[in-house]
Design goal:
Helix content: under 10%
Radius of gyration: 19 Å
Structural class: mainly beta
Strand order of the largest sheet: 11-10-13-14-15-26-22-21-18-19
Number of strands: 30
Distance between the termini: 13 Å
Length: 328
Amino acid sequence: MNSILKSFAAALLIGAPTVINAATVTFKDGNISYAEKTPWGDIDIDFARCMANKLYTFSSVSIDGVEVNHTESDNIGPFLIDQKGWSGGNHLNGDRMSAHTLGVKVYVDGRELTHDCTVDGKVLTVEVSNQLLHPSDDSDLARENVVYTVSGNSIDVKVSHEFQCAPETIERYYGMQSMFVNEFETLTPGGAFSTWTTYPVTSTGNELKFTKSSAPGFTTFIEHSKNGYQAAHMTADGLGDRHMVRDDDIIFIGNSWTKTYHKIIGMQPVKAGDRFNWHGIYSWFREPISDNCRTADGDRSFEYGAYIDGSPCLFHLNPDGTLQISNL
């Protein structure tokens, strides 16, 4: 048995509360600090208004006291409107904001936090409503609702949009992105990079990428830095089945402007009343549970620990990219 799993099993036997479901959440001046000890590292996650548009989202993630995700750019991406510009995330249009946060609600285990406090609990839920603005004239483009469910070492993200604009074309929408810090290699089970691949020294023009038709089972990319790993799993819910991306279009881009992306819309029309949604799970860990992707003769499976709704789970990635989740 992997040493991490052995430690986890021992914690289960002794019922150690410092390992199992012992998150501490501090809510102060509108900001959130979340801390939990997990079998895969001591996790700290902050939520605040950040990026150029001052949108409320997770602003920092640390493993064992070292920051591994820093949101000076987007984790939750913007829309590029064909020939007109960007809306949302970190993008401005000239000196004009392209989005703003309308409201935030914070809950721990279903109980709303309405004043400064520090509480313990299993699951932190952050509900955010944003208004996205049209890049041409700042009129309403779409209402964006994001639900962040935080437990253990994971942030489960559910995003929905309702468009409010006259007919437009979305040139691209990445949706789930990564602001992982100082990654040097990546893994895309089911995609072109099924063994660990080092990022090029320069990003623009040297991006790692592959198309939808070449990787029908691809769901997850994993990044590695000297301080740990980050996995970004896109479920098949809504846009996650990539029905709004052509077969010959790109669905993964790595190391573009130092960032990595799931692409879920490419050159698709939208109009007022259209509704889209997607669902992804970010997880951070000191080490994987098993890694058979280091050499070409490995079976190219990969396993890591993550949390769903307060419970630790085993995420097993098959060589074709499909994911199996089981309780621990």
